[in-house]
Write the structure tokens for this entry.
Amino acid sequence: MGVMGFAARGGLLRAVPKGLSVAARFVFVCVLASSLTACGLFGKKDVPPPKEIEIKPAPAAASLDFVAVASPLANPGPDGVPAPVVMRLYQLNAETNFSNASFRQLWEEDAKTLGPTMLGKTEIYLTPGGIEHVKANLIEGTSIVAVVVGFRNFENAKWRAMVGLQGEKRFKLKADLKTLAVDLGPQD
């Protein structure tokens, strides 16, 4: 929509003094629009781009306080009825093998697929609407905490998530298990 289209519907023309010719009104509207646009150019401070988060391994004796919360509608079957599900909690020292693996590779042969990047694994059994807590010591060298959920319909699910650690002594993470997705982040 051009200035004339906007102006013809009475937009900026309400600010134009009456009695001016159409050409004078057009010039007035253009000057007014340019002035308003220029106002946004001043006083704007350059905001630096966000810093990348540096992933650091967990220090010795670091702990993990992990909570998994399942939706009452989690893991529906073909009949739509929710069902219990297994979630695997991994401690990793690198993300590449985990990120590049298929669901079947991780579910059926995770030790082979992840190789030496897998430092530890815990299996958690979740019922729809259930909550499970895991408190554990992080294995030295862990820089990534990741989860894989064994959804029945994994082909149409977001079945994996991971979080990089920042070298703190205590980590509080929460996995939100939705109908066909898992999200991993800090506890509230």
